[in-house]
Design goal:
By secondary structure, this protein is α/β, with parallel strands linked by helices. The chain has helices at residues 14-27, 53-71, 82-85, 89-95, 108-111, 127-139, 154-160, and strands at 2-7, 31-36, 75-76, 100-101, 144-147, 179-182. It is 37% helix and 13% strand. It has a 3-stranded parallel β-sheet with strand order 1-2-3, covered by helices on one side.
Length: 186
């Protein structure tokens, strides 16, 4: 099961965020998506403002780190929105405990119409270029991209007794829709 939280919504407190993590535990979530709340033109909450970028970025990183410590070997996505706050946002999220990056494979002609927030990065990169750049950036942080893995968290695989086949990092040319960020440490 996957769930998540938007971090920094106007009026949200640290107590709210702690309650979200406790809910993830209660639900025994296998995947968590979390990212910063970013204002958007025409958005319903624009009049309420947005947390200052540096503070919002650090709060988002802290949520990733605490969720990793509490939840163990689940999947935690490094949200693209992190790059709006910092050019190395997703890569930094990996160093705080995120382990999944989802590439933008939306065809170029449709990307302008699919923007959940302003200043979304990579709108003009074709999927292949995007993937290569992303892999280089991840490797520059000492991490390895595991192409074509099942996408299931290790927690789920262990709980269900499913094979961890594919976690050897070998690339396959057929399906490159999800990146699993493998730790290069034992």
């Amino acid at each position: 099961m996957g769930t998540g939280v938007m971090i920094g919504i106007p009026g949200q407190t640290l107590k709210d965020l702690c309650a979200d993590i406790r809910l993830f535990q209660k639900l025994e979530a296998d995947m968590i998506g979390m990212g910063p709340y970013l204002m958007s033109e025409g958005g319903d909450l624009k009049s309420l403002g947005q947390t200052e970028n540096k503070q919002l970025f650090q709060l988002s990183l802290n949520m990733i780190a605490v969720t990793r410590l509490v939840m163990g070997n689940i999947n935690i996505a490094a949200a693209t929105a992190m790059q709006v706050l910092d050019p190395q946002g997703r890569e930094t999220a990996l160093s705080y405990g995120a382990n999944v990056v989802m590439p933008n494979l939306t065809p170029l002609q449709y990307r302008e119409g699919y923007q959940l927030y302003d200043k979304k990065p990579g709108l003009k990169d074709d999927p292949e270029t995007f993937g290569l750049k992303l892999e280089e950036r991840i490797q520059s942080k000492g991490r390895e991209v595991g192409w074509n893995l099942s996408g299931s968290s290790r927690k789920w695989l262990n709980r269900t007794g499913n094979s961890q086949e594919g976690y050897d990092g070998n690339k396959s040319a057929s399906e490159q829709s999800m990146l699993w960020i493998k730790s290069t440490e034992s």
